[in-house]
Structure formats: structure tokens, C-alpha cells
Amino acid sequence: MVGFLIEEGQQLNKWEGHVDWRNRPAMRGDHGGMLAASFVLVVEILENLAFLANASNLVLYLSKFMHYSPSSSANIVTNFMGTAFLLALLGGLLADAFFTTYRLYLTSAAIEFMGLLILTVQAHIPSLKPPTCALASTEIPCQKANGQKAAMLFTGLYLVALGVGGIKGSLPPHGAEQFDETTPQGRKQRSSFFNYYVFCLSCGALIAVTFVVWIEDNKGWQWGFGVATATILTSIPVFLLGSPIYRTKIPAGSPITTMFKVLAAAIYNNFKSKNPKNAVMGMETIPSSYNTETSEEGESSTKVKVPRQTLTEDLKFLNEAIKGKPVSPMLQCTAKQVEEAKVVLRKIPIFMCTIMLNCCLAQLSTFSVQQAATMNTQIGSLKVPPASLPVFPVIFMMILAPTYSHFIIPFARKVTKSEMGITHLQRIGTGLVLSIIAMAVAALVEIKRKKVAVESGLVNSADSLPITFLWIALQYLFLGSADLFTLAGMMEFFFTEAPTSMRSLATSLSWASLAMGYYFSSVLISVVNNITSTFRHTPWLSGSNLNHYHLERFYWLMCILSSLNFFHYLFWANRYKYKTASSAD
């Protein structure tokens, strides 16, 4: 009897569906909690430092040392960033289906390390780069990287992108998994974790756009890449220090397979029900999958019953997936699987509405840096590298994140008398509004910059314009605030609203939105250039001289598109129904 009670107590103390780093059952009190999540936060500082150390300044490296044009450099950077964030979907899928988030992070960090090592070697050895370009010399024309040099550059870049994708797909859900979502305290701690994840992401970015960018501009790019390489290498032992107290979700197979199974069954049954020959047969069939959510052992001597999950009325066509006898055992679905598919489909419109905001954010690492490079970057006796401009939104985000967690949210909880205080969708909507303001400010600042260039007679000169680069900081401030509200809101929204079996993949949608934004930025620039070149001799965004660009018109276009996107978002956000506690896994 005593042995039975001890065994029963051990079962109660286990984290169901979780294991430790040695694949033993994770135990309450020993695994998980804020301490375990703290290691993830420290690792995020190092990981984001390694990634942004070069991404924030990469557009200048490509134009000055690899001799690509400003628009080509901007497209290379946006494609690189977009690929890195899009690969987070692959990372999330692998973490949910095959690997644990623990193992996937270690593998991805090693891949990113190899990519940065390749870039460091190329930056260090002159023969692996194009010859130095002397603008005033006709003997040494500017020659962009091609052949083996370009192959080495892009191999390094996309190994980094692959590693970053795996990290972004595994690290945030690994930290969020450390909390007990069955208690209000655990859910509040998890919400704070996402805010502090963005805070730590900003800490890494702050070091990257100040210290590392200064090294790149003053000591050489080989040193900048070297710092990033050493940083990502350091993150691995730091992450391993938390191994004894991590709890890790057991992979449950591919969630994508379940999604497609539900969709296929629903489509087949809908088609069959419309066929007169099958109408009577369909009415006479007993929907057994709908009536029972129990295992096959339900009628055995144990008589264990699993609570049946009822079907909701939204997306009713998916309910057909469990009506009637399936044409194949592979298409047999349960009510729980149907409801999980609905949860995913309901989030897709919200996901699509965030892409435009991230298209605006893409300008932070492309045209905004190039604008600042044409302006006076002196602050007193200090000369600030243009790539260090993101320091303004980063510092603001570092101030706003803890303020939001410790003051705004507690106040909102008291006012609304709700656990969340401010809903995830309200946070995302606030970010969308801030992005609209940011694009309007960016257009006005560009008008002022070009006016100064004309008045000072420096339109065709490479000299710095007599206008401070701090004007550009205004758009960085609004876009940085938008990023804080939207990124943290998206990550928590996708994680908490997703079925347990696909939370890593769902959280990766936040990064996929960033990827789509970067890709859309590249496509938008190409479309704008193609259309404007039809009506004018030169397109809006082409050439090597930024003063000849019509960047202000491009920013106004972004402002209009962002406004239309916000109204589109309101339509879907007002119709979204949050997953209730009773339907949680």
C-alpha cells in the first residue's frame, strides 16, 4: 500500500508529456520554472548579438567591399534576413515532430558558427574579396564579387540563415515550455517571459549596433565577423549550463500531417455529401469518431473515459471530416484534431496582416542606413557609424519592455479585471498603428534631407549633407516601438493559442511574418521600379546615388498600404475568438 502511494505521488509530480535532457521524466519542482527560462534569455542576448552584429551593417559591407549597388545590396540583405526568418518554420516543425527544442538549438548554433567562420575567413584574406575599388581611378574599375568569391559569400550567409532559422524556431518555445500553464501564476510568468525575451533580444542588438559596428568600421570586418563567431560559440556552453533543470516537450509527430488529414477528409466528405448517390449512405452512417474520443481500451476492464471534445460552429465545413465512414483509415479523424485544425486556420488571417508591418521594419536595415550614411553623423566630437542608428529604438525597447511588464500590464489587469489585461490582438494592433506613423515620418524626413541636398548643392556629391542623422532616428523610434508591441504579442498569441503538439511551429509564424515582410519589401522595390520606369526615364529606386532616388514617394506608398492593412486587420481581429481554458490541451 505504501509503495502504491509513493508511486502515485511520483506520477503526480511528473510533467506530463515532458522529459529532461537525458530523456527521463521531468519532475515538478526539479525541472522548469523561471530559473530554467533565465538561461534561455541569456542565450538569446548572445545569439541575437551574433546575428545582428553583421546583419545591421551588412548592406554597407556589400556595397563598399563586395561592390554591389545600393539597391542590389538592399535586396541581398532583405533576402538573407527573409530566408533566415522563414527557415524558423522548418526549425519549429522539426522541434515539434522529430527533435526536441533542446537538441535543435545545439545543432542550429553549430551550423550558424560554421557560416560565420566562412565569412570571417573571407573578410580576413584579401584574395577572397574583389580588388579595392578606387572611384577616381580608371585603372582599377569597380568589380563586384562574382564566381568563387560570390559563392563563398553566399555559402557563409545562408549557412548563417539556416542556423538562425533553427534557433528562432526552437529557442523561444523552449523557454516558454518551462512554465506551468495550468496555473494563473505560470501563465503570468510565461507572458513576462515573452516580454523579457524581446528585452534580451534588444540587449544583444544594442551591443551589436554599437560595439561590434564600431569594430567593423574602425578595425575591419574580419574582427566584426570574428566577434560574432566567438559569441555564437560561447552561447552553446551557456545553454548547456541549464541542462539539469530544463524540461522539454516530447515530439509528437508532424502536426502538418494531421492538418492535411483533416482538410482531405473534410473535402472528401463535403464532395460525397453533395453527390446524390452518396446522400442516403452518408445520412445512415454513424459518425463514430465524433461520438468517442476514448482510446480503444475504453471498453476494457479499466473503463477509463476521456472527455469528449465538442465541435464548434465556426469553419463548419471542417466538421464534415468526422462524419461518415472514412474512405481510408488514414483519413479517420477525431473531434480534437478537427478543432486543432480550426485553431490554426483562424490564426492565418492575423498572421497575414502582420506581414506589411515587417515590410516596414525591413527598411531599418536597408534604405534607412543608406540615408544616414549621406548625413552628418557627428554628435559633438563623436562620429557615429550609420549602422548604429538602431541604437535609438533598441534603447527605447529596453526601457519599454520592463515598463510594460511591471507597470502597464498590472494596471491594465486591475482596470479590465482580466488575467491578460491587454489582449494579444490589441498589442499587435498597436504595433500596426505605430508602423503607419513611422512611414509617414520617414517620408517627411526624406523630403527634408533631399531639400538640404539641393540647397547646399551636394546632390551629386559624396560629401556628407549639413543635416544631422538624428532626423532618421525618429522613424527608428516609431518602428522600434511597433516591433516591441507586435513581436512579443505575436509570439505569445501564436504559442498560447496553438495546440500543444505544434507550439514550436506556431511560434515560428512570428519569424515567418518577418521573413515575408523582407521578401515583400524586395518584391515591392522591384515592382515599383518596373512600373515607374515605364512612365519615367529612370525608376524611383535605382542608381548609385541615393539623392536621385524618390524614396519619399516609396515611403508614402508604404504608409498607404500599411493603413489599408490595418483596416484589414481590424476585420479579422474583431471576429477572432480566443481559445478558452476548457478547450486547452
Give a brief description.
Keywords: Membrane, Transmembrane, Transmembrane helix. By secondary structure, this protein is mainly α.
Description of the molecule:
With 585 residues, the protein is mainly α. The protein folds into three domains: 11-132 and 143-252, Growth Hormone, Chain: A (Up-down Bundle); 254-272 and 321-333, no CATH class; 345-577, Growth Hormone, Chain: A, CATH 1.20.1250. It is 66% helix and 4% strand. The chain has 19 helices and seven strands. The chain has helices at residues 2-13, 34-55, 58-64, 70-97, 101-124, 147-176, 184-218, 221-241, 255-274, 276-284, 288-291, 335-353, 355-362, 367-373, 391-416, 424-455, 472-497, 503-535, 551-573, and strands at residues 14-19, 25-27, 248-249, 375-376, 378-379, 382-383, 465-468. Strands 2-1-3 form a three-stranded antiparallel beta sheet. The protein is globular. It is found in: Membrane.
- Please give the CATH class of the largest domain: Mainly Alpha
| Strand residue percentage | under 5%
Specify the biggest β-sheet: 3 strands, antiparallel
Number of helices: 19
List the strand order in the largest sheet: 2-1-3
Number of domains: 3
Q: What is the string of SSEs from the N terminus onward? A: HEEHHHHHHHEHHHHHHEEEHHEHHH
Number of strands: 7
CATH-defined topology of the largest domain: Growth Hormone, Chain: A
Q: From the 3D coordinates, which CATH architecture of the largest domain would you assign?
A: Up-down Bundle
The low-confidence runs, each spanning 5 or more residues with pLDDT under 50, are 4-9, 279-307, 581-585
Global Rg: 26 Å
What's the N-to-C terminus distance?
32 Å
Q: How would the global form be characterised?
A: globular
What would you call the structural class? mainly alpha
Mean pLDDT: 81
Protein name: Protein NRT1/ PTR FAMILY 4.6-like
Transmembrane segments: 34-62, 74-95, 101-121, 194-215, 221-241, 348-367, 387-407, 428-447, 467-488, 509-533, 553-572
Family: Belongs to the major facilitator superfamily. Proton-dependent oligopeptide transporter (POT/PTR) (TC 2.A.17) family.
GO molecular function: transmembrane transporter activity
